[in-house]
Amino acid sequence: MKDLVAIVRNQHLFAPGETVVVAVSGGADSVALLDIMTRLADERLKLIVAHLNHCLRGAESDTDEKFVADLATRYHLPFVAIRVDVASFAAAEGLSLEDAGRQARYAFFHEVARRRGATGIAVAHHLDDQAETVLIRLLRGAGATGLSAMKPSGANLVKRPLLKVSREELELYLNGRGLTWRTDETNSDTAILRNSIRHELIPVLKKYNPRVTERLAATAEILAADEELLDHLTVSSFDRLAFSANDEVVFGIEALLQEHRGLRLRLYRHGLHELRGDLMCIALTHLEAIDRLACSCRPNAGLKLPGDLRVERCYDRLSFTCAAPSAPRQWEQDVPGEGSYRLENGMTLTVRRVERPDDLATGSKRIVHLSADAAPFPWLVRPFTPGDRFTPLGMTGSQKVKELFINEKLPLHERSRVPLVFSEGEIVWVAGVRVAQKGRVTSTTGAVLRVEILDITP
């Protein structure tokens, strides 16, 4: 039997002493993951068990929650759970139960990570899940980016340490360790695409190649390596061919058309992502429309894309812009002292006095420590306005907050929601983005304030 602990350790996904949220449903995969994570003794990980009750199976869902709670107690680990009526959420948002459940889970895991200062979220996706994902995306018409499927270290803190381990190997591990798990009967419902692929399509494919799951996962790994190379080439070419200014991405058409079409399409994707922060609803047809615009003989023309994105051609310039939302209502919030304050943008700011920590690094941009003497109350919190400046921690000169947003690649539509925290008329924190030099904690600081911004809206 494979040494699964060694397989996870040798991927070096977790730093020594790291705080990690472990997503545990109670199924075989996540129970095995939790046990393996507790055996990474050299890493000295601080683990938090997180469970989302989907409320889809009545008493069975509640029993799953209790099973995971008991599991956390057995390992002497903190346990966090939440109940979400996924069926109602799916109906309200027009989503499938699978998509609604996934959105609810990851929103919950990230909220737990923010609250606990975790820098990793471990999920139990394994080799068979990877193979199924490749087939799902192939059936839906994905290109190489989609077919590269899941990565061991994904975006937004997510880690997948079991991608090289099969479902069968995980069950062998559990049996060898004398561990039990819960079985979700809905996993047999072939009306769900993933279940249909697992129970119907893959058995057929195994008639042609008994190791088809391993081959599909290996294909995804090869494509992921290719994607890494192509991403590097795209970013390098983007830096050479495009410039960003005033919330606009601009290409010179003459130089752009010297590049291969495949690279041009990737450059368009990159430019759109730079503006909006995601590529939701952007399909190949949109990228091809941009390319036709770039290749057109018309000196002036434009395209409107989903999500208020617009592409304009003006002679030798191809510019990408994201229409700014209507100007947000200006607001101000007074913070006279410690406490919890609900802000008008839907966020919550919490302030409390703590002992000076030995290590000021919180592992999260949403939590900072400030000197009560250097940043005295009352504070003022308000959104960004043009012309705001501050001195970032560790710097001597001031910087425009707008430049900070650009450097941090913060999408235009998110900038108006970022609260600025002021003390004595100076910014002490661009909340969730960067702390200022003013208010810094030094070796001589007495009272220390722990300040956290909670984003409780989607």
TrEMBL record:
Residue stretches making up the Lysidine-tRNA(Ile) synthetase C-terminal domain: 379-451
InterPro entries, per database record: Lysidine-tRNA-synth_C, TilS/TtcA_N, tRNA_Ile_lys_synt, tRNA_Ile_lys_synt_N
Short name of any one Pfam family annotated for the protein: TilS_C
Keywords: ATP-binding, Cytoplasm, Ligase, Nucleotide-binding, tRNA processing
SMART domains in the cross-refs: TilS_C (SM00977)
Highest taxon listed in the record's lineage: Bacteria
GO molecular function ontology, one term from the record: tRNA(Ile)-lysidine synthase activity
PANTHER family for this protein: TRNA(ILE)-LYSIDINE SYNTHASE-RELATED
Family named by the database record: Belongs to the tRNA(Ile)-lysidine synthase family.
Protein name: tRNA(Ile)-lysidine synthase
Chain's gene name: tilS
